[in-house]
Amino acid sequence: MVKIIADSTCDLSKELIEKYDISILPLHIHLGDDEYEDGVNIFPEDIYKWSDAHNTTPKTSAMSIDEAMDLFRPFLEEGREIVCFTISAEMSAAFNVARMAAEELEAEDKVAVINSENLSTGIGLQVIEAAVMAQEGKSAAEIKVEIDELKTHVRASFVVDILTYLHRGGRCSAVAALAGGMLKLHPCILVENGKMRPDKKYRGKLNSVILEYAGDLEESLKRAKKDRVFITHSGCEPETVQKVREYLEKLQHFDEILETRAGGVISSHCGPGTLGVLFIEE
User: Fewer CB within 10 Å of terminal CB in the chain, N or C?
Assistant: First the structure.
């Protein structure tokens, strides 16, 4: 059976990783001179504490070629094909690193590296679809063809609670961050064609903003693949997440409503309180 691998930005829970037999390739997070592996020896709460103490955002980087080779090699030695997902090539070198690792192992014909053109569970949705195909006995080449078609239908967006982390990371000006805080503005960030872009700005308390955001997605949600929808957040209050879950339940559309926490790489850029509803639109 084809082995499914994804980098750590897919933000899938341990339960889903185990259920679908997915192996994770951690990206790196740099806190000053110290380097960590996302989800292995550093977690979002550690990042928030460090970032607030140092008034800056951590640096993040792709895994090394050797790390990717070390993960690929045992599965190739077993005679298995591999499908490996990475965060959008527009956002990280991870895609090129994974591709070069396959070349170094002289296994380009056995390893299909997929540029997800997405992030977080926008990748995770693709990974689970691929895992299901692998369980059905499809080859790596067949899976790649189907995913390349499917990934254009992934809908990934997030509402950001505070603009401080985007400002620290150079993704929003100091004036915009200050004004956003004073006016209680919460921008919606869309992922399109592998890139992030700002969309609607919501105003008010996060609890009401999140429901307004979910409501704006309703027509697309009703056209979504019924299998699953993700609520992915970077540390929202439980009642906020529950309100979104209840809203999705009332739609009576999805077989599964899955909640996951954003990992270290995603959280280090968006900060706490960010929440997204992610799905595949048919």
Answer: C
pLDDT the model gives residue 163: 59
- Kindly state the greatest CA–CA separation across the chain: 58
**What are 5-38's pLDDT values in tens digits?**
999 999 999 999 999 999 999 999 999 999 999 9
Rounded Cα–Cα distance for residues 96 and 86 (Å): 9
Helix 238-251 to helix 206-216 angle, to the nearest 10 degrees? 20
